[in-house]
């Protein structure tokens, strides 16, 4: 899959970058291994999924991995947003909103007209960016999409 080049965004000393060579594998696998959605995925499979996606590393002003997100995408029509995570020490600073906004507005994904995701606990974050819940109950309530 083409990554459509490397992109970078900066804000308040933080950087979001799509360069997979900058990703801190150990940090990301530890972060995601602690989540409800990825804890049962083997580290090897998780890392392979990251390598086969458009990945967004979030780095602190000191250059440390502060967060992460990825889009599983065909780069033209469809994307699945996944694995969005901010380290606890960097939460409550608007970084989660920033990385999601960056992912949704990435010029490399400009032609993607449907972005989907699943969440059990972050509906309000995604709703502020235009995502809507697909279903009314059970697992369907977890599915959200943005059509543009």
Describe the structure.
- This protein is an alpha+beta fold and 148 residues long.
- The chain has one domain (8-113): Aminopeptidase.
- It has helices at residues 25-33, 43-51, 95-104, 123-127, and strands at residues 8-11, 14-17, 54-59, 65-73, 78-86, 114-118, 132-133, 143-147.
- It has an eight-stranded mixed beta sheet, with helices on both faces.
Brief descriptors of the model:
148 residues, alpha+beta, Aminopeptidase, eight-stranded mixed β-sheet, globular
Summarize the SSE layout with pairings.
Elements lengths: L7 E4 L2 E4 L7 H9 L9 H9 L2 E6 L5 E9 L4 E9 L8 H10 L9 E5 L4 H5 L4 E2 L9 E5 L1
Order of helices and strands: EEHHEEEHEHEE
Number of helices: 4
Shape: globular
Q: Tell me which CATH architecture applies here.
A: 3-Layer(aba) Sandwich
Task: Kindly give the count of domains.
Answer: 1
Strand content: 25-35%
Q: What is the name of the CATH superfamily? A: Gcn5-related N-acetyltransferase (GNAT)
Uncertain ranges = none
CATH topology description: Aminopeptidase
Which strands sit side by side, in order, in the main sheet?
1-2-3-4-5-6-8-7
Q: Describe the biggest sheet? A: 8 strands, mixed
Radius of gyration: 15 Å
In which range does the helix fraction lie?
10-25%
CATH class: Alpha Beta
Overall mean confidence score, pLDDT: 92
**Distance between the first and last residues' Cα:** 23 Å
Query: Which structural class is indicated by helix and strand composition?
Result: alpha+beta
Number of distinct beta strands: 8
């Amino acid at each position: 899959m083409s990554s459509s080049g490397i992109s970078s965004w900066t804000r308040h000393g933080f950087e979001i970058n799509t360069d997979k060579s900058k990703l801190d594998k150990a940090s990301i696998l530890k972060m995601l291994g602690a989540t409800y959605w990825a804890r049962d995925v083997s580290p090897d499979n998780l890392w392979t999924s990251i390598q086969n996606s458009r990945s967004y590393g979030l780095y602190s002003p000191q250059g440390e991995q502060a967060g992460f997100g990825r889009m599983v995408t065909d780069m033209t029509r469809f994307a699945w947003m996944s694995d969005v995570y901010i380290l606890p020490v960097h939460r409550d600073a608007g970084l989660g909103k920033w990385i999601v906004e960056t992912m949704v507005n990435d010029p490399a994904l400009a032609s993607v007209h449907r972005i989907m995701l699943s969440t059990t606990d972050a509906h309000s974050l995604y709703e502020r960016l235009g995502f809507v819940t697909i279903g009314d109950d059970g697992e369907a309530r977890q599915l959200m999409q943005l059509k543009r």
